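G., the chain you wanted modeled:
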Amino acid sequence: MSDLLLLLGCLSYMGICLSPVSGTSVVRLLVCISTALASFGGVVHAFSSDQSLLPDQLQEARDLLELSQRADLDGVIEAALLRNPRLLSASQRIEARRSQLSSSERRWLPKALFNTSGDQPLLGQYFETDIARDPKNDLASSHTFDNYGIGSLNLQVSWNFWEPSRQPAINVSSFQLDAEKLTFDVIARSIVLDAQLAYYELQENQHLIDIYEGIYHRNRQLLEIVESQFKGGLVHIGDVSQQKTLLLSQLITLDGLYRVQLQVASDLARIMGLPSGSAVLPIGLGTDRLTTWDLDLNQSIQDGLALREEIRIALADANAQDWEAQRLVNLYLPVMGLSANGYKSYSRGVFDGDINGNNNSYRATNSYAELTLGLGFNWNFYDGGVRAAQAAASRNLAAAQRHDADGERNRVGNQIRSSYAAYLTAKHALPDSEEAIRTAKLAVDVASQRYGAGIGDITTVVQATQLLGEASRQRKAVRLTYRNAVAELYRYSGLWPKPYRSQIRTLLKLDNP
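Predicted structure as tokens:
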């Protein structure tokens, strides 16, 4: 139909040019025919994305994008969950909390200690010389010495069977571990959402780039037509200026779209935990079949309130603070336990030997052993109220955490409602955005062909092209809003995205849905 309009327009203009016949009319006729043929050829390439016909200003950006890795969304999510530094860090924090819990639980076990005293080493040699002189009676003087090896070892074993602060300490560590696991899930969900949002942005932005490249290519051909008509005296300089302005505006728009593509490709690589400087692009533009959200608003909110980890983290922290307060108070109670203390010493050598005589008769071996068993207790019943004040602070922190949980509940409801509203409005706007694109392309076709045939003006072409660009941007915004809203509804409702649920559970070894 559009080709027929072009032919009719050209024939109509030819009829005008043939009467009366003059030199000027012949020139205008030739320009008209060449213009119509050029316009007809441009229709064949309309809305194509032939990069060889794009301006050199975008070549560097295109070359940089070509260096990007390619991945589908499954691969992106898998890489992000396996290599993202935030998730790896959270995993190590879980292990640290597990070790802290194990440390608290082991307080139930008895303690054993080997030690030695300063004057009784584990292995040593003892030397002593004793010289006593009596100036009045030399026979009463004595000269003796000791030279013997010694060894000793002390073993202490104790078991506190009554320690009131022990179980509260275990409970504190247990709730802290629960909170750390939930924090891991929060980070994982956020990473999956970030990966989806970046991936969708790249797909929709690339689709918009393709449209704008097609528009640019078509309008560059139209500029050549306008310039030919201007040289033939058929149009004035204002028409040429309008078309050049439109072309430059489209070039600036393309430059911005490429900039977004480069930035988001780098962001996606960062989310995936790839080396610095990496970039990732989608393998394809996706299909027109978009994921739907099957739950209504009330069910979505109920799921979010029941499953959202942020609420459960605040409650776990509150419980940990309650038990910390109990632990501090219980430190005022006595600790009772059993203890055993065994001691063994050994010595061999010369004891009280004569310095000047034969000391064989002074050689001896001595050993000593003792064992003490008993029941003991330790009761630090007053410290000036230090631990009581600390316990009050922990109870206040627990109350604050429960208020934080209420705040998280409100935030969950707000997030789900906002995303659900975006989903519904975008869902209804999708058909309109597609129809707007179709009619805008048709308007550009007709306006361009009428102008090429000499029965339209360049202003109409410019306006139609601008409307096509606007319709393309609106469709991108609507599609992106729709896809992002579905991804956010999964995130804010505490559910894993249905298409990737099995994969995510396998990667994270989760038992919850």
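Residues 301 and 413 are 6 Å apart (CA to CA).

Shout if anything looks off.
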